[in-house]
Amino acid sequence: MEYPVNTLSQLRSILQGLRKANKLTQTALAQKLGVSQQSYAQLEANPTSASIDRLCKVLEVLNVDLVLRDGVCDQLSILGNVATVGRNVGVNGLQEPLH
């Protein structure tokens, strides 16, 4: 299943949902990450302040892949694909090749 992330504020509910889908409490997930429950709770409450490295570790524990997919429309391809507008970032639980 794919979880498109168009704004960073969406990460909170996605992380909570993925954790619960894996039947993990914040405490259990924190133990797997080697951090305190309070530390993980802060990350989950405000994932926009977390580093990419930390988010990748959380996603790894949750067995989720981070997929960056080029969502360039015709206009942007004419411009030589130089803008980042139109890019989609998704969290994907399935193994998919990057195109």
Automatic annotation (TrEMBL):
<protein>
    <submittedName>
        <fullName>Helix-turn-helix domain-containing protein</fullName>
    </submittedName>
</protein>
<dbReference type="Pfam" id="PF01381">
    <property type="entry name" value="HTH_3"/>
</dbReference>
<dbReference type="InterPro" id="IPR010982">
    <property type="entry name" value="Lambda_DNA-bd_dom_sf"/>
</dbReference>
<dbReference type="InterPro" id="IPR001387">
    <property type="entry name" value="Cro/C1-type_HTH"/>
</dbReference>
<feature type="domain" description="HTH cro/C1-type">
    <location>
        <begin position="15"/>
        <end position="69"/>
    </location>
</feature>
<dbReference type="GO" id="GO:0003677">
    <property type="term" value="F:DNA binding"/>
</dbReference>
